[in-house]
């Protein structure tokens, strides 16, 4: 519970940012054809693999570059979208129906007028993602309050072939939570009830629209904590967390949601309600299908309820903020921390000197705890245990030992919760600071620790002084957040230097091009950098089986050729 | 010149306080305890005075149960030269604390005593004033700026008062209590935490100091503040005005 107070502030900042008028520099630049040429030439070799559709029909990838060469123009009249990514052009799937008045009346019949939103001002927020990078043009937002209503909505949409996008807190960073064209937005915000909590087992059952931070404060009162925590906690919802398989700041301690989610209730595209809302820890009866909904980003069904295993709250939390001279020291420090702090280690985060400067320059209230001299790397270590005296002793001994061994060049140890929160702010405030600095190209990568930071350095030398390249992330989980910050989006000059380089580099080092944010729209076409053709084929078959009309979150997650 | 600073161990500022079911006090078991934020500011000020060359020694004092040593260690890690722990498990009220300080001042003979303006647990805001009274020293409370003149043996203190800033000059020795805006306390760095381990902490008991801990105060009951009522969303300006007029009675 330690960080609740000041970290709630971050949640507040997030919210306030979402609603502030959009900064024009944060919007994607207008469609231009040139951005495709370089990237697609190289890349379509990799992407141009045929895929066997569920019904054995052979499809090939849509290649916008070839399309451009053949037609010499981007079609007029056909709706297309291009986002700040060489993933390129998306076409509205003509198989989807267009919304009409009868549809709206039908939804009003199910939900009541108040929960069927057509007001354009209100829709702007839901059509725009957190980064103000992806904008949809949906004309309808639905706010169901029960699973039954979600089921009725989906059943109808499926029969009408109306595309939908499930939306949680809309904090996703890959363009997955907003419509691409005119998809109907189904917001889970009104499904925000806590259903039950078992104090003996620590199992919480709640609706998908509960905001993470609300669950945390509910649990805090009961003497428990969420096994998941992330900077977006003030806005993101548990349903969104489950659907993206969010990783966050405590994964090093509690593991991924695949381990902590005990049960899920989800609604399939045709309206079928799947009750898998188990509250027991062990259940080996057949295929464990709930896992399909963890991390499938709303492409297989809408999550309506979840049950979560929550650990008891431990009273002793300590936070240290440390400086390291090079990346190799950070890595060694992690190895040592796992050995010497093992059972109490609850977070191991890192940021480079460039990230630190960015936060100090752009985030109000950020204060450098080690101001004596600039350092190349900073590490935040948190321990959580049950005995303050012995935990503190252990941590201090570890830190002092690491200092003697020269793994740490300097550091501070929080003496109270306020100080701990101010250290956390430096790490958790980076996404916010990036937004304030202007445009940002975000990459969320899993890379074997040994090579991880080489990518940042290579990227830096490739871009020279045209952009500010920063690296930070969940070092304890081998998760790098590589961010390229520039005053304005400039796809010709900047993006073409980053992609496909970053993806190829990650693939070459056997990493993942999405560690925790998901694929969304941004990386739907990039899946092959991390998954084999056979694997994606099976995914496509599963998608076809569960959502044959592809109405659920179209253009996302799987390559566009499969959904169009 | 020697500066003595009081550092109190309190329930951490960021902890959500819970009242004991029997209403005799607040729950402190398994609750994070830290140095009172105003004491942190007091200590920071003393350290800055020492660093500017105007003082040679900063002595941190904490009164209370054995765990107060942890608070003193924090103080030593911030930079205090040494600590004094007066161990007592009794409930301590400002007058008892002030009497203990009077004795410690007789022993240590500091030229300046700096305390927080209040502790965030009981919010008494009395200790500094009582010590000044018992010692017959001048006092500068709610300090937002402190300037020392070593030659003239004078401290000039800006005080935060309701209608602005009041500046007072105190002849040393004197008592100063700190307000929030005086400074921003430093963090405890690892090298300083290491050094703090070998700094001495002297122990006393109230009996050794000849102070009898008694109080003519009795806490009758501790209760939670009333819960804030949920707000309502009004649908029109007229409704708002109506509510402000007829329900809130503010216009
Ligand atoms: C400041 C900041 C820090 C962040 N830190 C982290 C971090 O540390 N770790 C991390 O993993 N992520 C992080 N993120 C990314 C993001 O917060 C997570 O992906 C989060 O889990 C998304 O939750 P949400 O409710 O906002 O979902 P949304 O953004 O609304 O949706 C995300 C995806 O899930 C789908 N979806 C949402 N709800 C449902 C549902 N009920 N059923 C089916 N599909 C659904 C959407 O269609 C979309 O594809 C961060 C974001 C920000 C802005």
Largest interface between protein chains, with number of residues from each side = A-B, 32 and 23 residues
User: How large is the count of helical segments of chain B?
Assistant: 6
Give the SSE order of chain B as H and E letters. EEEHEHEHEHEEEEEHEH
Note the overall shape of chain B. globular
Describe what is shown at a glance.
Chain A is of the alpha+beta class. Helices cover 37% and strands 18% of the residues of chain A. Among the domains of chain A are: 6-138, no CATH class; 316-430, Alpha-Beta Plaits (2-Layer Sandwich); 438-517, Alpha-Beta Plaits (2-Layer Sandwich), CATH 3.30.70.2740.
Present the secondary structure layout.
The complex is a heterodimer of chains A (564) and B (251).
Chain A: H1 4-19, H2 34-47, E1 51-52, E2 58-59, H3 64-71, E3 80-82, E4 89-91, H4 101-111, E5 116-117, H5 120-127, E6 141-142, H6 147-160, E7 164-167, E8 184-187, E9 194-198, E10 203-207, H7 212-222, H8 238-244, H9 251-254, H10 257-260, E11 261-267, E12 273-276, H11 290-293, E13 302-309, E14 316-324, H12 327-340, E15 345-352, H13 353-362, E16 377-385, H14 388-404, E17 410-413, H15 417-428, H16 430-437, E18 439-446, H17 449-463, E19 468-474, E20 479-486, H18 491-498, H19 501-508, H20 533-546, H21 560-563
Helix pairs in contact in A: 1-15, 2-18, 13-16
Chain B: E1 2-6, E2 9-11, E3 33-35, H1 37-51, E4 57-64, H2 68-78, E5 82-87, H3 94-108, E6 112-116, H4 127-135, E7 139-149, E8 154-161, E9 164-171, E10 174-178, E11 188-189, H5 190-196, E12 201-204, H6 237-246
Parallel strand pairs in B: 1-4, 1-6, 4-5, 5-12, 6-10, 7-10
Antiparallel strand pairs in B: 2-3, 7-8, 8-9
Helix pairs in contact in B: 2-5, 3-4
The structure holds flavin-adenine dinucleotide (FAD).
């Amino acid at each position: 519970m330690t960080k609740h107070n000041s970290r709630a502030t971050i949640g507040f900042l997030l919210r306030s940012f979402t609603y502030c008028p959009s900064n024009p520099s944060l919007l994607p630049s207008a469609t231009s054809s040139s951005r495709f040429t370089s990237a697609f030439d190289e890349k379509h070799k990799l992407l141009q693999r045929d895929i066997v559709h569920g019904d054995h029909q052979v499809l090939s990838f849509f290649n916008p570059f070839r399309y451009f060469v053949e037609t010499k123009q981007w079609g007029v009249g056909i709706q297309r979208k291009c986002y700040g990514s060489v993933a390129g052009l998306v076409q509205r799937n003509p198989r989807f129906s267009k919304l009409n008045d009868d549809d709206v009346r039908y939804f009003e019949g199910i939900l009541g007028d108040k929960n069927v939103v057509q007001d354009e001002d209100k829709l702007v927020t839901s059509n725009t993602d957190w980064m103000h990078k992806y904008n949809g043009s949906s004309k309808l937002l639905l706010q169901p309050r029960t699973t039954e209503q979600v089921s009725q909505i989906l059943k109808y949409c499926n029969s009408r072939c109306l595309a939908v996008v499930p939306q949680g807190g809309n904090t996703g960073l890959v363009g997955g939570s907003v419509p691409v064209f005119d998809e109907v937005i189904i917001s889970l915000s009104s499904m925000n009830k806590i259903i039950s909590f078992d104090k003996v087992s620590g199992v919480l059952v709640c609706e998908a629209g509960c905001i993470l931070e609300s669950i945390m404060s509910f649990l805090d009162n009961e003497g428990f904590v969420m096994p998941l925590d992330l900077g977006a906690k003030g806005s993101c919802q548990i349903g969104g967390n489950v659907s993206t398989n969010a990783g966050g700041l405590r994964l090093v301690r509690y593991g991924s949601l695949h381990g902590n989610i005990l049960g899920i209730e989800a609604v399939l595209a045709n309206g079928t309600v799947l009750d898998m809302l188990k509250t027991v820890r062990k259940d080996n009866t057949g295929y464990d299908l709930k896992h399909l909904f963890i991390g499938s980003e709303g492409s297989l069904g809408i999550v309506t309820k979840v049950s979560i295993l929550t650990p008891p709250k431990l009273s002793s939390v300590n936070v240290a903020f440390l400086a390291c001279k090079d990346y190799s020291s950070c890595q060694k420090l992690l190895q040592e921390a796992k050995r010497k702090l093992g059972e109490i280690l609850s977070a191991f985060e890192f940021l480079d000197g460039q990230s630190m400067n960015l936060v100090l320059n752009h985030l109000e209230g950020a204060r450098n705890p080690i101001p004596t001299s600039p350092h190349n790397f900073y590490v935040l270590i948190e321990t959580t245990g049950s005995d303050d005296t012995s935990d503190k002793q252990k941590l201090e001994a570890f830190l002092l030992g690491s200092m003697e061994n020269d793994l740490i060049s300097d550091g501070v140890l929080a003496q109270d919760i306020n100080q701990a929160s101010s250290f956390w702010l430096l790490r958790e405030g980076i996404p916010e600071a990036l937004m304030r600095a202007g445009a940002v190209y975000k990459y969320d990568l899993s890379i074997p620790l040994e090579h991880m930071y080489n990518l940042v350095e290579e990227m830096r030398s490739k871009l020279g002084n045209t952009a500010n390249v920063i690296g930070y992330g969940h070092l304890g989980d081998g998760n790098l957040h590589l961010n390229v910050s520039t005053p304005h989006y400039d796809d010709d000059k900047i993006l073409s230097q980053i992609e496909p380089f970053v993806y190829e580099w990650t693939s070459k080092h056997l990493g993942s091009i999405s560690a925790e944010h998901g694929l969304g729209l941004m990386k739907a076409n990039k899946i092959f950098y991390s998954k084999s053709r056979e694997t994606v084929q099976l995914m496509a078959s599963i998608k076809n089986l569960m959502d044959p009309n592809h109405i659920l979150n179209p253009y996302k997650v799987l390559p566009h050729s499969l959904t169009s | 010149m020697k500066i003595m600073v009081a550092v109190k161990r309190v329930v951490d500022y960021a902890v959500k306080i819970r009242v004991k079911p029997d209403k005799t006090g607040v729950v402190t078991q398994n609750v994070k305890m830290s140095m009172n934020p105003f004491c942190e500011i007091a200590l920071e000020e003393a350290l800055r005075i020492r660093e500017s060359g105007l003082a040679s020694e900063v002595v941190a004092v904490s009164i209370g149960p054995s765990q107060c040593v942890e608070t003193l260690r924090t103080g030593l890690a911030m930079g205090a030269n040494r600590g004094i722990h007066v161990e007592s498990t009794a409930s301590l009220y400002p007058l008892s604390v002030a009497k203990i300080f009077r004795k410690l001042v007789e022993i240590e003979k500091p030229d300046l005593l700096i305390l927080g303006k209040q502790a965030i647990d009981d919010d008494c805001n009395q200790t500094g004033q009582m010590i000044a009274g018992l010692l017959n020293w001048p006092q500068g409370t709610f300090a937002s700026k402190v300037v020392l003149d070593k030659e003239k043996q004078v401290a000039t203190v800006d005080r935060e008062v309701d209608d602005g800033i009041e500046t007072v000059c105190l002849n040393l020795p004197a008592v100063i209590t700190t307000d929030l805006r005086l400074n921003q306390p430093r963090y405890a760095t690892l090298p300083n935490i290491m050094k703090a381990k070998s700094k001495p902490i002297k122990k006393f008991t109230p009996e050794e100091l000849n102070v009898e801990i008694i109080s003519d105060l009795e806490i009758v009951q501790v209760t939670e503040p009333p819960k804030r009522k949920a707000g309502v969303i009004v649908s029109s300006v007229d409704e708002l005005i109506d509510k402000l007029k007829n329900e809130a009675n503010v216009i």
